[in-house]
Amino acid sequence: MNHILAIDIGGTKLAAALVDASGSVLRSATRPTPRQQVMAALGGLIEEVTGGGPEPVAAGIGCAGPLDLAAGTVSPVNMPSWRGFPLRDEVRELTGLPTVLAGDAQCMALGEHWVGAGQHSRALLGIVVSTGIGGGLVIDGTPVLGPTGNAGHVGHMSVDPYGERCECGGRGCVERYASGPNLARWALENGWTPGLASSNRRRPDGPSPDGGAPSPDGVTPAGPAADARTLARDAAAGDPVAVAAFERGARALAGMIASMAAAVEVTTAVIGGGVSQAGPVLFGPLEAALDDIGGLGFVRAVEVRPTTLGVRAGLAGAARLAWDYSRSAS
Ligand SMILES: [Zn+2]
Q1: Per-residue pLDDT, 211
Q2: What confidence score (pLDDT) does residue 114 get?
Q3: φ and ψ at 262, to 5 degrees?
Q4: What pLDDT shows up at residue 77?
Q5: What is the distance in A from the centroid of ligand 1 to the CA of 79?
Q6: How confident is the model at residue 271, as a pLDDT?
Q7: How far is the CA of 316 from the centre of ligand 1 (A)?
């Protein structure tokens, strides 16, 4: 049976897999993304996955953006050593395979549409909520990539034109409210003590409930990390600031999803990425906010689902992209 070499490149992790025409993974491997010499690490990973196995018929790559599809180059925000890097041609030369490239969140959407939570969806919006927020659209089975390959950057849709300034230079971007680091940042600014609600840190002779605040230099010396994972646990334990942070982030996501539904009649939104593992503390307020924000019937009808593929969605989508590419080329 023929296989595709699927590659998923992010700021923290490189992943590769051999994927068959039904979406099943024959073998896969990951390694951390190095600061420098990323291509050498990727070459080793590809060798690990393909060595001694069946020869793949094509390669599909999902990479963190921004990218330029026409040129086949990438400039991932979290990978400073790659600016205008000719990734598609480098992989093509390395493997000798027909090679196709798309954004990592576009691949996530395509993977969820193929073998995940968005199967049979007419108009799917895939959203990755993590350190940043990315997205991808699949309409009638076809990925919407855009003229330069950057369609679906839903994290930088503004949900408040008077809102806070985003790192991208824009204002009121969804990412500023709902990404993992921004959820934690807002909670800390509003008095959250990481882990206080979810762990039994209050001993009889221990600090009072209002103790354990960050030291003057802003660093909490011990205890749980001040990140979205701890925030989710605290929200589940009823910490009011943690709950409010997720409600605020969910409302921003809901505004974006309702806008996307109005623009292109999205029927299904699948949410993945680390923050989606927060579960009900995210999805509960998200449903409530969509109910409040959405007006028109087809906007209100959008269905929101958590990912079923998790971190494998990007690899599945990269494989699907390459299958479609190799079929259209032959
Ligand atoms: Zn932005």
Answers
A1: 41
A2: 97
A3: -65, -35
A4: 86
A5: 18
A6: 98
A7: 27
Q: How far is the CA of 313 from the centre of ligand 1 (A)?
A: 24
Whether residue 66 has a cis bond before it, omega within 30° of 0 = yes
Residue 221 has pLDDT above 80, yes or no: no
Q: Which residues surround ligand 1, an ion (CB under 5 A)?
A: 156, 166, 168, 170, 173
Q: What is the DSSP string of 245-267?
A: HHHHHHHHHHHHHHHHHHHH---
CA 177 to ligand 1 center in whole angstroms: 10
Segment 269-295 mean pLDDT: 97
Tokens describing residue 306: 């958590």
185-191: which pairs have CB atoms within 8 A and are 24 or more residues apart? 186/245, 186/248, 187/231, 187/241, 187/242, 187/244, 187/245, 188/214, 188/226, 190/241, 190/244, 190/245, 191/241
Q: How far apart are CA 202 and CA 221, in angstroms?
A: 16
pLDDT at 78: 84
Token pair 């190799």: residue: 326
Q: Give pTM, 2 decimals.
A: 0.91
Pairing of strands 25-32, 58-63: unpaired
Alpha-carbon distance of 175 to 155, in angstroms, equals: 5
The CA 200 to ligand 1 mean position distance, Å, reads 37
Q: Which residue has the higher pLDDT, 21 or 53?
A: 21
pLDDT single digits (tens) 250-264: 999 999 999 999 999
Structure tokens at 45: 């990973």
Beta-bridge partner residues of 18 = 5, 27
* 259 Cα to the center of ligand 1, angstroms: 16
Angle of CA points 273, 109, 183, to nearest 5°: 25
